[in-house]
Amino acid sequence: MTPDFGFRGYISSRPFCGERAPQHVQNLVIRTYCARNDLRYLLSATELAIPDSFLMLEQLLGQIDTLDGIVCYSLKQLPEEQDKRRQIFSRVIDVGRSIHFAMEGLRVVVTEDAERVEKIFQVQTLIPYCLSAEDLRMAVGGARN
Prior knowledge:
It is a single chain. The protein has 145 residues and is an alpha/beta fold. The chain has a single domain (7-144), classed as Resolvase, N-terminal catalytic domain (Rossmann fold). It is built from five helices and five strands. Strands 2-1-3-4-5 form a five-stranded mixed beta sheet, with helices on both faces. Strand 3 (69-72), helix 3 and strand 4 form a beta-alpha-beta unit.
């Protein structure tokens, strides 16, 4: 960690992925994450309520060389488009910084970390097409009869 730097929080004022968390709760989660991981916490930037806006995240990325990194409340705050996420990860990694996701307990420091996060996103896109636990039980039980 660089002296006088720290980790800027990133929270949302709008729902993301169909979920909503009050801003004070998002900040508490980020503060707790920083405390547990010995990260110097700086106040959070709050994303605008405009749908699909990432103006504040872009502003943080523009300041990334003056920070140790960014701590997002959740992975789900990132853009849905894979190319946009990869650009974010590259911008952070290229300057030797990190981006963390407090709810999931994940961080991206190197390219391999970004690839791991992308796999999580890929799995999430498949979940709506998966059988529910009940449907699976019925399918397996029905196959035995």
